[in-house]
Automatic annotation (TrEMBL):
Gene3D superfamilies: Jelly Rolls, lambda repressor-like DNA-binding domains. SMART domains: HTH_XRE. It comes from Microbacterium hydrocarbonoxydans. CDD domains: cupin_XRE_C, HTH_XRE. This is Anaerobic benzoate catabolism transcriptional regulator. Residues 12-66 form the HTH cro/C1-type domain. Keywords: DNA-binding. PANTHER family: HTH-TYPE TRANSCRIPTIONAL REGULATOR (PTHR46797), METHYLPHOSPHONATE SYNTHASE (PTHR46797:SF1). Signal peptide: none annotated. The keyword rRNA-binding does not apply. One of its GO terms (molecular function) is DNA-binding transcription factor activity. One of its GO terms (cellular component) is cytosol. SUPFAM superfamilies: lambda repressor-like DNA-binding domains, RmlC-like cupins.
Length: 182
């Protein structure tokens, strides 16, 4: 199986070339350095969640397209083998479990977070709705101006096209996040 860094490198280059963008132009549009884009495309570094979101928006593709394996057969992801994409701003990582297949519009992530800096997200594509099911720990989740305290088993849905937050309040917090585009 291809490792996450290699998959991201291949996909960023493919999407950039399909959009007929130079490395410099993609970097400018995403608000990251040209060196960062070059290092990501060569597989020299692994990206943060924030960098991948910015590149996805600049390329006009969902975050999931940058990290998904596009499997052709049943896929099993063992807990110990998950490819995590860390946040650069918080003790938070996202693991894409299932990307939206052509014609469908949903992505499924496993979120793991620790107390400390909250994961604050800028608005995603217009029409995005997020669904969160907290599986362990406790977290403040939802709209940035009115997050809701979730406990294990709680479900929350909220607009993903507005600023939102995931703030773990206890160690070992995890959740399933489903992002859907309507």
């Amino acid at each position: 199986m291809e490792d996450l860094r290699t998959r991201i490198a291949r996909t960023i280059r493919r999407e950039r070339e399909a959009a007929a963008l130079s490395v410099s132009e993609l970097a400018r549009r995403a608000g990251v350095s040209k060196a960062t884009v070059s290092q990501l495309e060569s597989g020299q570094v692994g990206p943060s969640v924030e960098t991948l979101w910015a590149l996805g928006v600049a390329l006009g593709v969902p975050f999931a397209d940058l990290v998904d394996q596009q499997p052709n057969a049943p896929t099993l992801i063992r807990a110990e083998d998950r490819a995590r994409v860390p946040s650069s701003a918080a003790a938070y990582s996202a693991t894409l479990l299932s990307a939206t297949p052509p014609g469908a519009r949903r992505d499924i992530y496993l979120i793991q977070a620790e107390p400390g800096d909250a994961r604050r997200s800028d608005p995603h594509h217009p029409g995005t709705i997020e669904h969160v099911i907290l599986s362990a720990g406790q977290a403040l989740v939802g709209p940035a101006d009115a997050p809701v305290l979730l406990n294990p088993g709680d479900y929350l849905t909220y607009p993903g096209d507005e600023p939102h937050v995931f703030d773990a309040t206890t160690p070992g917090t995890s959740a399933v996040l489903i992002s859907e585009l309507r």
